[in-house]
């Protein structure tokens, strides 16, 4: 089954929700960056959060960037989603793998550490919207919920899970965002909290084979839900030789000349997909002559 996001509304309450299943997406990221389990879980959770947030954008060419900067061994996590929910990202140290904090529980919080979460929304305006909060736990889902509450004043429940198999591949991955719209009363909040508690960890539910719609229906079982949009999503990088060439040109004449004199060639690697772009001395000299 393809990775998918489903957006739903409650017909009988001011509640909107998104749910994602993303096993292939997270597995692709793991293969590209050669992440070990703890780093895999941290990057995977961030990818899924960004995917659901990007999918909520109304601007067709908009994008969302999440930057998690903690003082833990993982370093920074950077993830970008387009407005369809297709994502790309990387973690500063993919080789981080800490001891389990409990049976079957990866210690993402300790790997991330204390720091900040920054959300950048590019809505094709003159300036992007930028919101930053202190990390609540480093577990990613808690921090996403805190961001919405603090920066956008939207009460949010967020769950994200990545189950890593014994061979380090992804057994399942998924999550949800449930948000209250204006006018939500206390009994609505209580019903959502009950559903979250009863379903428990996302990966435990997904490993039984249920799909994204059923997962959300279980959590919001006290509400009448209506699907408003379904879309397939994937790990997608937009790098190209043309873009890399433009980046080299943007260095300017002096830096480009220094690069030719000192190295005689250039090898640039995309941080998101690890694709390598090689430029010979002749190609660099042609770029310099074109400036």
Automatic annotation (TrEMBL):
<dbReference type="InterPro" id="IPR016154">
    <property type="entry name" value="Heat_shock_Hsp33_C"/>
</dbReference>
<keyword id="KW-0143">Chaperone</keyword>
<dbReference type="InterPro" id="IPR016153">
    <property type="entry name" value="Heat_shock_Hsp33_N"/>
</dbReference>
<dbReference type="GO" id="GO:0005737">
    <property type="term" value="C:cytoplasm"/>
</dbReference>
<feature type="disulfide bond" description="Redox-active">
    <location>
        <begin position="237"/>
        <end position="239"/>
    </location>
</feature>
<protein>
    <recommendedName>
        <fullName>33 kDa chaperonin</fullName>
    </recommendedName>
</protein>
<dbReference type="GO" id="GO:0051082">
    <property type="term" value="F:unfolded protein binding"/>
</dbReference>
<dbReference type="Pfam" id="PF01430">
    <property type="entry name" value="HSP33"/>
</dbReference>
<comment type="similarity">
    <text>Belongs to the HSP33 family.</text>
</comment>
<dbReference type="InterPro" id="IPR000397">
    <property type="entry name" value="Heat_shock_Hsp33"/>
</dbReference>
<keyword id="KW-1015">Disulfide bond</keyword>
<keyword id="KW-0963">Cytoplasm</keyword>
<dbReference type="GO" id="GO:0042026">
    <property type="term" value="P:protein refolding"/>
</dbReference>
<keyword id="KW-0862">Zinc</keyword>
<comment type="function">
    <text>Redox regulated molecular chaperone. Protects both thermally unfolding and oxidatively damaged proteins from irreversible aggregation. Plays an important role in the bacterial defense system toward oxidative stress.</text>
</comment>
<keyword id="KW-0676">Redox-active center</keyword>
<feature type="disulfide bond" description="Redox-active">
    <location>
        <begin position="270"/>
        <end position="273"/>
    </location>
</feature>
<dbReference type="GO" id="GO:0044183">
    <property type="term" value="F:protein folding chaperone"/>
</dbReference>
